[in-house]
């Protein structure tokens, strides 16, 4: 199983980066599950 985990996305800049790069990253890595953790959120 391929899992893409991105941790501690911080603030508007972090969200903007995820919004910009995540589609391409998912296309390249082709994960079955993607988890993105906001800063210190559980």
From TrEMBL:
PANTHER family: 2',3'-CYCLIC-NUCLEOTIDE 2'-PHOSPHODIESTERASE (PTHR36303). InterPro entries: Metallo-depent_PP-like, YmdB-like. One of its GO terms (molecular function) is 2',3'-cyclic-nucleotide 3'-phosphodiesterase activity. This is Metallophosphoesterase. SUPFAM superfamilies: Metallo-dependent phosphatases. It holds the Pfam family YmdB.
